[in-house]
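Risk register update: the risk that structure generation would not scale has been downgraded. Supporting records follow, first protein first.
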Amino acid sequence: MLTSVGFVLSRVFSLLVPRDWSRRILIDILNESNAELRTRLVNTFIDSEITKMNTTGVTAALIAGVISSSFSWYNIEDTTWPTRAAWFSGLVLSIASVASSAIHTAAFLRMKCDRDIPQRFRHALGKYKDYEGEEHDIWKPHVLIPYVLGGPTLHLKLAVLAFLIGLFYELWRAANDAMLTWHGEHLKIAFVVTLVGGFVVINYIFSIWTLVHRSIHTPSKP
């Protein structure tokens, strides 16, 4: 039972942080034998991370604005504490995403100023493993590095999730308070919005599976 629950939780968490994808890319970069190619790969990886962090930071700031504006709704005082708790949590998570994105961007920019970027990259993101036999990789990423790199994105996704949880909770609470009958508007609104939300979730999972998980499990050779 616990194994099944752990498997389900790991699969759900992998939708938020694609750990295997980042780990495989880092292993290839850290163990590239050609110095010139390794330098190009490191620079490409750093540039892509900076772009990703900038995009994540801007998006998180927009999400924080959306959540903040929800507190100016005319009936905000009528909402229950779980709704406001979820929205405040989403606001904190979005701010954390902005802050961590800025910290990561500054760290990678400093790394690009180093005279020996590949070696600095290795010591910052990897660790040396002295294995017997040449079939093993010498450099391995730190265990938590994939999660650290995905931290700003994880905060952003959790912020959106917290806001949606509060929104749907409030919709169905209003529907339940107004008698469960199709003659009331609250139940109709909650039902329609839930259908739209389900459609969005299905498309999100499909896009993540197509872009991330298929890239992880697709063989490099045709």
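Supporting record for the second protein:
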Amino acid sequence: MISDAIIGLSDGMTVPFALTAGLSSLGNTRIVVLGGLAELIAGMISMGVGGALGAKAESEGYKASVADTTRLVTNSSAEASALVHDVLHPFGFDLAQRDAITAKLMQSTERMVDYLMRFHHQEKQPDPSRPMACGITIGLGYALGGLIPLIPYFCVGNHEVLKALWISVGIMVVTLFLFGYGKTVLLAEKDQDKSTWKAIKGGLEMVAIGGGSAAVAVGLVHGINSNVPE
């Protein structure tokens, strides 16, 4: 759930920010707002659907692996037993111990399949509700992240687009930095160094990605608009 939210927020705070910054070069707040909202809605839907389909594919892949493993245990017990031996051998079990554990597992097809899925394939059964939860979380994360750079444009006049742009840039620099900082701290493993510098580096990377995307978008839109006859 946390990783899904991070994916949605990361894309939501970079893509719409770049789009609204690029559209700002056209000098019309209304265009920025309408274009930003259109992208926000389309992006939220596409990201949500993509996340749901990805989670569904993961679930279907797990079911296929279970079916293949069940056929293996049923039709080729010797091969299944060899897989158990392969898993146990690195942990120092001698042959007699491996044979005893294998014989115990082979007493139940379900138990053997579960063992091979967990320790040989190293796959965990996905939650049946994950596709919907994943899609909703990513979609809402995208919408929330994408709304932040758009807010200033609602608060200025139609021809004050540059004012809104600079306010949006200021807000997004702070937001992207805090997001990158918090993401680095949150996702750091317990045995990894959680130094302040590492978190600061994560924040600066997010600012560089978002700011760079916005700068490129502004330059491209301005260049195209300058060379297209009215």
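The radius of gyration is 26 Å. On this basis the risk owner (M.S.) recommends closing the item.
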